[in-house]
Write a structure and sequence with these properties.
By secondary structure, this protein is of the alpha+beta class. It has two domains: about 1-110, no CATH class; about 115-175, OB fold (Dihydrolipoamide Acetyltransferase, E2P) (Beta Barrel). It has three helices and five strands, in the order H-H-H-E-E-E-E-E. It has helices spanning about 1-30, 55-70, 75-110; strands at about 120-125, 135-140, 145-150, 160-170, 170-175. A five-stranded mixed beta barrel has the order 1-2-3-5-4. The longest helix is centred in the middle third of the chain and has 34 residues, at about 75-110.
Length: about 180
């Protein structure tokens, strides 16, 4: 039975490390948006499924880890399996309830596509000229954001000037005086 606990623990840790490495690699290469897949439904009023890979990996890792510890402490097999299952379910439920659900809700309320920002009014927070980039701040849904900016027509813009976002290219906002 200890072999099963080691396999579960190894698979959970391996999945976690692999997810981190692949996530960083995709983020570095700019492919992170391609991997998004939405399979959620309404699960008991939460609006998202608890069967997320991170939740399953947490369960498998905790189940295996607690099983290894209790087996080494020479607990009876039925006690080891029961406590391991309980700890795995508890940690997974806490992870889901207090991390996954709030992050999902926050993501859905604050995500704005860059293209929808074209036409928004912003304020220059760091002046810019034809050869120098500056910085702007803008407000969306009550949240203030900041972004690097260039003058669309090469004109000089001073701190405090109101501008309109005319284009966004490579995360640089192009603006013109309002």
């Amino acid at each position: 039975m200890v072999r099963i606990f080691y396999i579960c623990f190894g698979v959970g840790v391996g999945f976690t490390v692999l997810s981190f490495v692949v996530g960083q690699l995709f983020d570095f290469m700019g492919l992170d948006g391609i991997t998004d897949l939405e399979l959620d439904g309404d699960w008991f009023g939460f609006g998202i499924s608890p069967l997320k890979p991170v939740v399953l990996a947490a369960f498998v890792t905790v189940f295996g880890g607690v099983g290894i510890i209790l087996t080494n402490k020479e607990f009876p097999l039925y006690v080891t399996i029961g406590i391991s299952l309980g700890c795995g379910v508890l940690v997974s439920a806490l992870l889901y309830r207090f991390i996954i659900v709030p992050l999902h809700k926050a993501q859905n309320t604050s995500v704005v596509s860059q293209q929808s920002l074209i036409g928004y009014v912003a304020k220059v927070t760091l002046g810019m000229s034809q050869e120098n980039m500056g910085r702007i701040s803008y407000i969306v849904h009550g949240n203030t954001y900041s972004a690097p900016a260039k003058s669309y027509q090469g004109e000089s813009l001073e701190k405090g000037d109101e501008v309109i976002i005319t284009d966004i290219y490579n995360n640089i906002f192009y603006v013109k005086r309002r």
